Amino acid sequence: MTHFGILCPTASGHINPLLPLGKELQKRGHKVTCFLTLDGEEMVRAAGLDFQAIAPDKYPKGTSAKNLAEIGQLQGTAAVRRTVELVTNSTAALFQTIPQEMRRLGIDALIVDQVSPSGGTIAEKLAIPFVSFAGALVLNRDPLIPPFMTTWDYNPSFIGVIRNKIGYKLLDSLTRPLNELINQQRQEWGLIPYQNINQRYSPLAQISQQPAEFEFPRPNLPAHFHFTGPFHDSSTRKTIPFPYEKLTGQPLIYASLGTIQNRLQSAFNAIAEACADLPVQLVLSLGNTDSNIQITTKNALVVPYAPQLELLTRASLTITHAGLNTTLESLAQAVPMVAIPITNDQPGVSARIKWSGTGEVIPISRLEVPRLRKAIEKVLSVPSYRENALRMQKALQKTGGVKMAADIVEKAISTGQPVPSV
To answer: What is this structure's pTM?
Structure first.
């Protein structure tokens, strides 16, 4: 029996994919403890896993909601910059408190989200193995691949590589305080400073919930990188009430801007107005319970939260911020998309939606009702979008999912050797 610690941001988009993996490991006789701020406790307890609060004095309950409300009003570089600032602060708190807590609890190994950059360093400090998990877009750096925060297309030409390198220079400038903090801590702990971002990730196994077919060509990934496909599991999620009796039977458009960038009144208005005169029913999930957003169009069913997995089985189209979870959950049901990327890795996910032919993309800066309505009508009427979504659904069905991921984790930790992909 191994006592696993899970380390990821306290955000549903990162927690939801890791809970099924934790449950699968628990079923196999292991103990699993999730390290999150207090706002993540309810989700973890509902899934039946153990919980340990990160710096509860510094991050009391409600902190995440406050931070998300702030970020939810931002977009583009401003949102990335604020996100980096918050991650830097939380990373400092993790370094100060978590190694002692993990020692006290007897943690044997870690599963670390790629967006939790402290995890690998903490594992090295404790001399325990760790596995990396890409809960968002694959973050491994490659000059052939555009930076995650751009909508740039895949272009492996000389010009494309130069463009990508310039983008990474910008990203490095935004994340410099975080990178400096991590290397400073590594030096204090007697660890060799990182020379590049990819050194943060596990030398034993790296796992992505994307299928390989939904990623740009990646010949330079390490041999121990695995595309397992997603771990969607409604049983690990809190039950969300929904007025199913109000569904009309018209083609259903499900719209959500996620649980972070969800305070943009103009974006919700544009979605509602774009659908207002179409022969469809719009279900619009606001992604929070304290929103002041008001939507009054006749065919819109507006809810604070929605049972997303269930509604996608009925949907003809998803309008999404291009969060990876919503994107993969849509493709699992062969539902094409119109993506409205706002910040962080959403532009990169939307670039893959466009590249895979499973939807259209309208950056938030170009969002207008006529443009959005045209994109909705195009995706609903042109068969290739649905056909490509079906192709991606089949690719997802062939992946090993959570059982494959658990196999990889167990093998990596039990052998202490890299687990090569097949």
So the answer is: 0.91
